[in-house]
């Protein structure tokens, strides 16, 4: 493809940065021309395993199973929603919040520039704590004929000597009990009478009335990252219902008590030595400004009373093996899944010190959290639309619940859509490599466990998340029904304008160094409408960069809507939480079925076969690979333009609309849009054209392209490198010729212009 000159017409960059509304109107008239809902031609959509066709292999893999402690006699019915529990098959299963191990609010330490700070201030010493060493992941309490079982699964367990956990029991509400927890925990809760200490060194039952201690049978399983203890019923018989609490911290050298948390690790004098308290419910940790679901925990640890966080264990129901359904919460919550890759354990550098600008993965473990919002209409077995709402630079999966609840409510409840925000392995992965993998695996788990409509998925995001709406939407245009970009840059990281080269000091291993910009991929948006919204005085993502994207969409004649807010910048806009116009233009239409004309460009360097990500199929084209000469060049793209006249797209007329958004939400804005008025269908012809640039191989499904039903047809190929073309879906007995010579279903096409002819043998 020959790119047009990169210009903003008669509007200068200086003009684009001026504030007055007069200038903004001038910009709108000269620059803006955006999108409207797709009018997908009717055709059957191919759906596999709840995921749309065209997703990369990673999105179709089954979820790995976590290891199970070898001597655990119960099932694995842990809830997927954090802050919830259930009874199942003789045990109570609880799932805690992930990466919430920050203790009390004490002395701020570490990198104070963090954009999504935890409420607690505790950090870890360097070494095997790995920035996450006392993070409770899951808890289970079971009952057999001879024992009660007490299981703790840790998020991170590099060294079993690092964490320590303490259960406390109120076994008889009629007795007063005591309040202070033993072994240096430093917290209290009224009415406790027994405690169970569990560390990597052993387990001890403590009678809080007599202070007698009794060693219990104990095991450590480093594969499952589990501590397991058993209390014989002959020692402590479970009757009635117990109130059980649990707290975790770092073990002292002997493993028989909590290590002190000094000021240099975030604690004020006299504050508890507890990093994490279990049995906090989703309702007790409301999402507002609560990025890591530790607000109530930090407050309780600040005064030391953890009475509010408890689980009731009904022993008779455990004995009866009562089973409750999986808890599902409408509204915002946090869920977890098991990734196909493990990069290590813990948090790289620790949460309080991680590099908010590093594109490297920061959250390394095999279990990853994601935020989800389920509308009140959600019911198991349904298939609601899905919105991928991707987070900004230096924030995380809880961004929208924490600081943009209105936006989240409008997208979730207002549009009756399931909304998902992955962590993407860190605050600044730019959704490359394992950051992208996280998106696909989260989507697959949501489709599998909760059910969504694979044909109605919108990809959206703010800032870095808006960049991902460009990057992923354009890389997989078949997968989505619409893309919505809020203040999103068209290029990764510091390279916000297509003509700006990568700085010499940029990490050469960074994925940003392998990617040019999404401007080169805009040709892919023929069947994916875009909604783009931007502030004219955006100080982080220059308005000119967004305007250039819109100019190119306009030149291509692709559907889009562009909203400009002359008085909005980058930071204030997201904090105002007002996105009425772009959200009102989010659609729930179907994604595009097989079209007749496909244009597709991709960055071969971003294909990661080891992770199962990267474009490989787009409608009736598949097995896409690039020539090695393209793959070796940083920022180079391969491109295919395929047009089947045997299944022609309906004609359409391009229509432009411009206007003013008068309401103050957030401030008056200007909009411009381009939509299509679909016309009459076109009669088919027996031709298909392929124009290949840097393409080494591809497969054409001739049946889906409309050629198989014709008695004869011609495929004209123009390629700049030798290419291997596989003809899939050929009718039985069909003959293939390349430039008049017999060929097979796989045709080796030299560089240049060639003709492949297909013919069906006459019957009889």
UniProtKB/TrEMBL annotation:
Chief site of localization: secreted
InterPro entries per record: AB_hydrolase_fold, Esterase-like, Plant_Biomass_Hydrol_Est
Q: Which is a Gene Ontology cellular component entry for this protein?
A: extracellular region
Key words of the record: Secreted, Signal
Compartments, as annotated in UniProt: Secreted
PANTHER family (alphabetical): BLL1128 PROTEIN, UNNAMED PRODUCT-RELATED
Q: What is this protein called?
A: Peptidase
């Amino acid at each position: 493809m020959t790119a047009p000159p990169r210009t903003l017409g008669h509007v200068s960059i200086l003009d684009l940065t001026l504030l007055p509304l007069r200038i903004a109107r001038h910009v709108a008239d000269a620059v803006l021309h955006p999108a409207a809902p797709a009018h997908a031609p009717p055709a059957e959509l191919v759906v596999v395993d709840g995921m749309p066709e065209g997703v990369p292999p990673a999105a179709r893999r089954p979820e790995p199973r976590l290891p199970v402690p070898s001597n655990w006699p119960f099932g694995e019915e842990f809830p997927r929603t954090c802050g919830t529990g259930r009874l199942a098959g003789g045990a109570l299963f609880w799932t805690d919040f992930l990466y919430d191990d920050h203790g009390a609010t004490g002395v701020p330490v570490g990198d104070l520039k963090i954009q999504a700070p935890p409420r607690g201030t505790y950090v870890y010493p360097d070494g095997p704590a790995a920035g996450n060493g006392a993070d409770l992941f899951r808890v289970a309490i079971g009952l057999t004929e001879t024992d009660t079982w007490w299981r703790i699964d840790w998020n991170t367990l590099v060294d079993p000597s690092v964490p320590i956990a303490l259960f406390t029991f109120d076994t008889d509400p009629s007795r007063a009990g005591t309040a202070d927890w033993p072994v240096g925990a430093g917290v209290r809760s009224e009415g406790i009478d027994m405690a169970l200490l569990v560390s990597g060194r052993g387990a001890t039952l403590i009678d809080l009335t007599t202070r007698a201690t009794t060693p219990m049978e104990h095991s450590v399983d480093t594969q499952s990252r589990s501590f397991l203890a058993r209390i014989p019923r002959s020692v402590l018989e479970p009757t009635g219902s117990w109130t059980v609490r649990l707290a975790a911290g770092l073990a002292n050298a002997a493993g028989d008590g909590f290590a002190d948390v000094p000021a240099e690790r975030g604690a004020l004098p006299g504050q508890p030595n507890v990093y994490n308290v279990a049995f906090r419910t989703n309702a007790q940790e409301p999402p507002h400004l609560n990025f890591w679901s530790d607000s109530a925990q930090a407050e309780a640890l600040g005064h030391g009373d953890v009475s509010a966080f408890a689980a009731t264990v009904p022993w008779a129901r455990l004995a009866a093996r009562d089973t409750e359904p999986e808890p599902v919460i409408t509204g915002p919550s946090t869920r977890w899944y098991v990734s196909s890759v493990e990069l290590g354990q813990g948090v790289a550098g620790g949460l309080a010190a991680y590099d908010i600008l590093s594109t490297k993965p920061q959250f390394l473990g095999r279990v990853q959290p994601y935020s989800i919002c389920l509308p009140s209409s959600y019911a198991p077995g349904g298939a609601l639309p899905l919105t991928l709402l991707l987070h900004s630079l230096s924030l995380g999966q809880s961004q929208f619940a924490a600081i943009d609840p209105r936006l989240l409510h409008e997208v979730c409840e207002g549009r009756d859509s399931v909304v998902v925000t992955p962590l993407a392995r860190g605050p600044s992965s730019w959704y490359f490599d394992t950051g992208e993998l996280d998106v696909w695996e989260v989507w697959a788990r949501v489709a599998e466990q909760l059910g969504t409509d694979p044909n109605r998925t919108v990809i959206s995001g703010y800032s870095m998340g808006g960049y991902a709406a460009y990057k992923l939407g354009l890389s997989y245009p078949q997968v989505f029904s619409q893309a919505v970009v809020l203040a999103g840059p068209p290029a990764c990281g510091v390279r916000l304008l297509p003509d700006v080269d990568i700085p010499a000091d940029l990490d050469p291993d960074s994925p940003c160094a392998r990617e040019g910009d999404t401007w080169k991929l805009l040709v892919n948006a023929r069947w994916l409408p875009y909604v783009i919204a931007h502030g004219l005085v955006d100080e982080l993502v220059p308005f000119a960069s967004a305007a250039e994207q819109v100019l190119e969409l306009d030149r291509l004649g692709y559907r889009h809507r562009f909203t400009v807010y002359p008085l909005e910048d980058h930071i204030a806009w997201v904090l105002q939480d007002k996105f009425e116009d772009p959200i009102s233009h989010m659609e729930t239409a179907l994604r595009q079925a097989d079209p007749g004309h496909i244009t597709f460009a991709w960055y071969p360097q971003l294909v990661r076969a080891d992770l199962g990500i990267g474009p490989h199929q787009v409608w009736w084209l598949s097995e896409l690979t690039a020539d090695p000469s393209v793959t070796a060049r940083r920022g180079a793209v391969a491109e295919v333009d395929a047009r089947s006249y045997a299944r022609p797209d309906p004609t359409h007329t391009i229509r432009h609309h411009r206007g003013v958004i008068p309401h103050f939400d957030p401030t008056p804005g200007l909009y411009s849009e381009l939509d299509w008025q679909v016309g009459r269908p076109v009669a088919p012809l027996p031709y298909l054209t392929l124009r290949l640039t840097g393409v080494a191989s591809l497969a054409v499904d001739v049946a889906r392209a409309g050629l198989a039903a014709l008695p004869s047809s011609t495929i004209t190929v123009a390629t700049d490198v030798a290419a291997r073309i596989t003809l899939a879906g050929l009718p039985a007995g069909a003959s293939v010729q390349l430039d008049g010579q017999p060929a097979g279903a796989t045709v080796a096409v030299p560089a240049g212009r060639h003709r492949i002819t297909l013919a069906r043998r006459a019957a009889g």
